[in-house]
Amino acid sequence: MEDKTMKGLNDLCDKTEVSVVDTSKKMRIGIIGCGWIADAHMNSYLRQPDVEIVAGADLIPGKAKAFMEKHGVTDAKTDYASHKEMIEDKSLCLDAVSICTYNRQHAQPAIDALNAGINVLLEKPFTVTLDEAVEVVKAEKKSGKVLSIGFQPRMDANMKKIKEIVESGVLGKIYYIQTGGGRRRGIPTPFGTSFIEDETAGIGALGDIGCYSLDMVLNALGYPKPLTVSGYVSNFFGTDPNYSGYRKDKAAEYASKFGVDDFGAGFIRLEGGIILDFRIAWAMNLDTPGDTIIMGTKGSLRIPSTECWNGTTGGPMKIYHEVAGSQVETEIPLIKMKDELFDLKIRTFLDACKNGTAAPVPSSQILYNQAIIDGISKSAALGHEIEVEIPEI
Fold first, then answer.
1. pTM of the model as a whole
2. For residues 198-216, average pLDDT
3. pLDDT exceeds cutoff 80 at 271
């Protein structure tokens, strides 16, 4: 009987909704930036039955053409000197673009595409600065098109469960959150220096994986507005030519070019009297900076950390609460996902474009995420707490 019950529970956990995709109209997609993250976009698009990849653009001559050939897309146009030239090519009849450029090149292509009436899937981080994010949102609102930010962890059923737990009220009033994560040795240099140079990346661990861990808790809370930030950043590991995570033949070069953060932390006051204690690392002499904890007046939720922050939980979550005067713990079993999160990111974006519905990861929320990252960087540079100022758009 017990085995049958557990099987039934597992069946429920594994159950996913099957949606029917209308293939009568192909979505015409262009890709801006043809580096390694574009591979994930392309692979996912090619698995969608209602997509046609029609164009690609990259700053490096010949890169877009080689990218398309690698993926077997032989009829896409790639002879563009810039993303703007591709966007302005009316013969493409673009429905949407994926923007997969360096961080510092996120904002302008997004603005140009939206101004041209094209839907946009923008890879994370949203932008480098809050000012850039504000300009992108202005273009989005003016265009009336879909702008979704590439936060595929949102699609994880376990992330959705965190939000359900908070919204259920079982934790009571939330007053303190501890979150973050990181890697013991994980500065991302397998693909060169685009992630670590200031002129291309602009921000490091804060924008690469920090944005995800912020989203995990902020989304669960309904994205309360950040009010103040006291921030700290460092790059002790990235600038060290003896850092063991570098290739030995490239260590000196990488260390000399490292111009972003490899560790960031912040103490953030949110609307509603909530305190957010955050830290994130690409490299550290520690296995983890700690589990995520959401503390409430009726109960608290512990979300186990992962060895390398990957957008989900490191094990079953646990609620600490009282039942009839007794202190108890309730374990929340992990939910198995059958679908790839990246495919869900692409699919939900396409559905929003086709159906005229809201973006699956709306910019109005990620604007607050970006404001915190921007605030940490500014506060760290100034050496004191700052107020977060987000203009009305």
1. 0.93
2. 96
3. yes
Higher per-residue confidence, 307 vs 123: 123
Give the whole-angstrom CA distance, residue 122 versus residue 113.
11
DSSP alpha helices (H): ranges in 47-95?
A: 63-70, 83-87
Q: Tell me the pLDDT band of 13, cut-offs 50, 70 and 90.
A: very low
- Is 64 inside any structural domain? yes
What is the predicted pLDDT for the residue at 309? 67
Q: Which domain range does residue 284 map to?
A: 154-337+371-386
Question: Is residue 144 situated within a structural domain?
Answer: yes
Instruction: Please state, in angstroms and as integers, the Cα–Cα distance from residue 243 to each residue in 74, 138, 187, 207, 284, following that order.
Output: 42, 42, 10, 21, 11
For 83, 134, 292, 368, 379, the CA distances from 385, given in Å and listed in that order, are 39, 22, 23, 17, 6
Residue 3 φ/ψ, nearest 5 degrees: -65, -40
Residue type, 305: S
N residues, the chain: 393
Do 315 and 177 share a domain, yes or no? yes
Q: How many domains does the chain have?
A: 2
Is the model's pLDDT at 167 over the cut of 60?
A: yes
Distances, alpha carbon 220 to alpha carbons 144, 166, 168, 215, 333, in Å: 27, 6, 11, 8, 18
In a domain, 135, yes or no: yes
The pLDDT of residue 19: 64
Q: Is residue 20 part of a domain?
A: no
CATH number at residue 303: 3.30.360.10
CATH number at residue 97: 3.40.50.720
